Amino acid sequence: MTPDEATIRAVRAMAERSLSPEDFEAYVRAPMSDEERASIVELYEWFTRRYPTPMQRLAASRRLPRYLP
Predict the structure, then answer these.
(1) H helices of 1-69, where?
(2) Residue 8, exposed/middle/buried by CB under 10 A (0-12, 13-18, 19+)?
(3) 3-59, pLDDT tens digit by residue?
(4) Do residues 68 and 11 lie in contact, with contact meaning Cβ atoms separated by under 8 Å?
(5) Which one-letter DSSP state was computed for residue 53?
(6) Do residues 57 and 51 make contact, with C-beta atoms less than 8 angstroms apart?
(7) Half-sphere exposure of 35 toward its Cβ, with a 13 Å CA cutoff?
(8) What b/e sequence results for 9-48 when a residue is b if at least 16 CB atoms lie within 10 Å of its CB, and e otherwise?
(9) CA dihedral in degrees (62, 68, 36, 45; nearest 10)?
């Protein structure tokens, strides 16, 4: 499923925004919530079950759709 144009614009704007050194430092030092940590672990576990070897993981990453040009 391809994201709609509004979603693509919003993600692009977020990715291309400029941060001051102070804002960047605050962002990377912000504590991770338990929910965010659990989500990351869940995605990691799914991915490594789905693609158990390093070669399979590399091949999968090369096949991923490219939503943002």
Answers:
(1) 5-16, 21-29, 34-50, 54-63
(2) middle
(3) 899 999 999 999 999 999 999 999 899 999 999 999 999 999 999 999 999 999 988
(4) yes
(5) S
(6) yes
(7) 0
(8) eeeeeeeeeeeeeeeeeeeeeeeeeeeeeeeeeeeeeeee
(9) -20
Q: Within 13 Å of residue 45, how many CA atoms lie on the same side as its CB?
A: 6
d(CA 53, CA 34): 28
What residues have CB less than 8 Å from 8, skipping those under 6 apart?
Answer: 67, 68
